[in-house]
Amino acid sequence: MNYHKLKSFSHHLQVSFTRLNNICRSWYKLYAPNSLKHRRNTDQIKLSDSSILAMLIWQAELGIESQRRFCRFFVGLSHSRFNRRARQLLPLIYLIRHTLNQEVDLSGKILIIDSFPVPVCQPVRNYRVKIFHDIADIGYKATKKVYYYGFKVHAIVSDDGYLLDYAVTKASVHDAKETVELMNNAHPTNHYLLGDEGYLGKDLAAKLKHMGYVLWTPYRKNMQGAKKHNNHQLMAVRRTIESDFALLSYYNAENNRARSLAGFQERLEVAVLAYNMAYCLERFN
Questions:
Q1: Which terminus of the chain has fewer Cβ atoms in its 10 Å neighbourhood, N or C?
Q2: What sequence ranges are listed for the domain Transposase DDE (predicted)?
Q3: Does 278 reside within a domain?
Q4: pTM of the model
């Protein structure tokens, strides 16, 4: 993990809850649909929707994995009620994240693509776990050389750390298989894309070239022409995504304790929003 980058990002997100609540209140006024603002009994709620959103981001910033524990000490609502209110905000969180994408200028940046695992249980329970049985499976975590049960998140990140878009698949899905669809959904204006050895292949490079993107991946050491092809500067730029994923892990993107698909998506969206919010606070205050 890049400790200095983590410290820098955390410093800019460790604002007072009052300021965080003000930011979320502004977002709520700008982007919340009328169906959410004017639903029944909104005049009787103890906490506003914007405060719930601020608390979700605050939980991610504090690195508290257990939402039950967070509710007990900070929220003042029961865990079930807080969880239900949080899931109602999922479309709003999604909209805010995509609006930030349009406001952040990434022109001239190099994009990096990679994936990280999201296990939903300990490896010892891989073949006994029952949750997500129809949408998750077993994959391999190369960094720790273990098999895990869960999902894989494929992400596109700029070379200075902004997460542009992501997609979630089963853990066993190969990195290269999701690349074209992810680029189609994100449709970035940047034309240069860096990937690791998992994205090697003429077919993928040809598909991306047809879409207007140039994919660069390092050759494996035993491949012909590896020494000439492997540009150490590009390899160093590509490795910055590993620091970005470490920061996302700090915001609980990898340690997702949700037991429903809606809860899983909500916590992942909050982690990405908190991460991108830290990026914006660091650069634009």
A1: C
A2: 109-243
A3: no
A4: 0.88
